[in-house]
Amino acid sequence: MVKETIRVYARVKPLGRRQQAGSYSVDNEEPLPSLEITVPRDLADGFINNKRESYKFKFQKIFDQEAKQDVIFDIIAKPVAECVLAGYNGTIFAYGQTGSGKTFTITGGAERYSDRGIIPRTLSYIFDQLQKDSSKVYTTHVSYLEIYNECGYDLLDPRHEASRMEDLPKVTIMEDSDQNIHLKNLSLQQATNEEEALNLLFLGDTNRMIAETPMNQASSRSHCIFTIHISSKEPGSATIRRSKLHLVDLAGSERVAKTGIGGHLLTEAKYINLSLHYLEQVIIALAEKNRSHIPYRNSMMTSVLRDSLGGNCMTTMISTLAMDKRNIDESISTCRFAQRVALIKNEAVLNEEIDPRLMIVQLRKEIQDLKDELALVTGKQRTSELSQEELLQLDELIDMFLKDNDPDSSLDVGADMRKIKYCFVHMKVFFLNRDENISEEKDSNEEVEKLKGLLQQRDNEISILCSEEVLFGFEMI
Ligand code: ADP
Ligand code: MG
Asked: Which residues does ligand 1 sit against, CB inside 6 Å?
């Protein structure tokens, strides 16, 4: 079991040519790297207020604008992929406002090969490792789920290209008696190598784009969860290890300021996206000590990610930040959220289970080995049933034993469990029959007594009647 807090990283997106830089500084000094953001005093209201100017946030590491995709993969994703290969569950999720680089970080940019993001690099790494390890048999599947407006859609559904997202069967959540979450209508597609897995990713991303219309702005408001499922087994062993790696591109985290333009955006803020609001509630509940109820069930996304948040998982969060002046307040919101996430502790356990078919094969072999050993020791080959001849012999022995009045007499059938069991069954039948005989005898005795009583009663009645008749006759005279 590995118990550790969720690892939280920050990545700052490169500034656009015409963007005005906000003021921030990165300090990656161990052991506590920090990001400091400075906000100019808000003079919009015409007076100097007391609002804080500088905000400092701690992260596992901060990746500034020039950080490349390969470094992001090596430092953030590779350790998680390694845990998943070892049989633990893992999750990496990107959180930040629309345009801050979540999709670029998780999936990558399409223009250059070097812009490949965490998903393709992780697939490549995992298949590479699997190929190198010939000590186990691995099976790999992928699934790609999109959650939009509390509805789940299977991005790998082959019917996608032909129909609108709304017409596809909805992915729904089912909970079993052990409170494990199962997703109905979400397909698990087998991928035997990197190329097949990449094709599935590409298919999902294409479906994601087709579904995106200017009307629903799905990309900024939907969550996408790409999951790699790995199961492994050593040849001949009945133990299977199963693990899942969720790579999550969350919806844009932008908030609507209640105070509006001119007021300070950092005061009270509200989410556009309801399920991110529920995610925040779950995170607040998890960060609080002594909270027994965690509201996972409030939204589909928190239900799906239940294990990744406060459960059996190694979880990592990447806060994506746009540091231009206009977005600095959203970036501060993102950092604040990240600080709460960093308090959550997860306990990742090895997911091992026994394959029942293999277990049967193993047990059969064990039985055969033991039988062989027994035959060697006793010098006799035993079948599971006793022969007719052996049964007759046993009946005779038991009969003799029962009839023998010597209290010291014993019944010796040898060290053979089948014969010993047979004797016990025989004794049981014998005793049951005896009990029955006794109770039958008892019943007939009772019957005789009852009849005797009845006879006595009749006699009494007759004698009374007789004496009355005498009396009556006397009166008539
Ligand atoms: P989000 O998914 O958070 O809405 P995107 O990943 O789509 O944001 O990023 C918005 C734009 O910025 C995209 O055109 C993307 O290619 C670009 N971009 C984001 N992060 C980086 C980066 N680190 N380096 C280069 N371009 C980036
Ligand atoms: Mg995006």
From this structure: 13-14, 96, 98-104, 109, 220, 252, 320
